[in-house]
Design brief:
The chain has 169 residues and is of the alpha/beta class. Helices cover 22% and strands 33% of the residues. It has three helices and nine strands. A six-stranded mixed beta sheet has the order 4-3-2-5-6-7, sandwiched between helices. A three-stranded antiparallel beta sheet has the order 1-9-8. Strand 3 and strand 4 form a beta hairpin. The radius of gyration is 15 Å and the shape is globular. The termini are close together. Bound molecules: inosinic acid and magnesium ion (MG).
């Protein structure tokens, strides 16, 4: 571990504000919060408790295939919610936006299901996502260009449980 990038208190305060922003951004209609597993699981569970309007929660599990070492941009859904997305506000929740490749493919896939709206909420954004052609509507923090772990983010499945976000040596 090199240093703590975002501590527990800082995250809690930001997540509370995001919850308020999301509550006012969706004054009406059905809201489905879709968490992208596994990385978003802690962020999503804290976030939905700060949203003061009715909503449903579901999850997506995406897997990249093709090239084994580099994210190829070919994404398939390993778990796909049963719920219909048609006519609903869909908020896709991600841990961190890096190249944006995964999110771009997912957004294209989900857009085909005719949601009323489709938006991204990411805890962290490295702001280097050249492959993402959708805006990140709700961002927790601009992330430093380091490898980050904790609060859901992993390195080889380690560190997900840390209550803060830290950079790795
Ligand atoms: P992208 O498709 O290149 O934007 O990659 C996004 C995914 O890569 C995230 O959902 C994370 O699982 C992973 N990732 C990217 N950067 C980091 C990092 O700094 N720490 C941990 N995981 C990361
Ligand atoms: Mg991930």
């Amino acid at each position: 571990m090199k240093r703590i990038a975002f501590d527990e208190e800082t995250i809690a305060r930001r997540v509370q504000q995001l919850g308020r922003d999301i509550s006012t951004a969706y004054p009406d209609g059905d809201l489905l919060v879709l968490g992208l597993l596994k990385g978003s699981f802690i962020f999503l569970s804290d976030l939905v408790r700060q949203i003061e309007r009715p909503l449903h929660v579901d999850f997506l599990v995406a897997s990249s295939y093709g090239d084994a070492t580099v994210s190829s941009g070919n994404v398939k859904l390993v778990y796909d919610p049963n719920t219909s997305l048609e006519g609903k506000h869909i908020l896709l929740v991600e841990d961190i936006v890096d190249s944006g490749r995964t999110l771009q493919k997912l957004m294209d896939l989900l857009a085909e299901r005719k949601p009323r709206s489709l938006a991204i909420c990411a805890l962290l954004n490295k702001n280097i996502a050249t492959e993402l052609h959708h805006p990140v509507r709700f961002t927790g923090f601009d992330a430093p260009h380091e490898f980050l772990v904790g609060y859901g983010l992993d390195h080889a499945e380690d560190f997900r449980h840390l209550p803060y976000v830290a950079s790795l040596e």
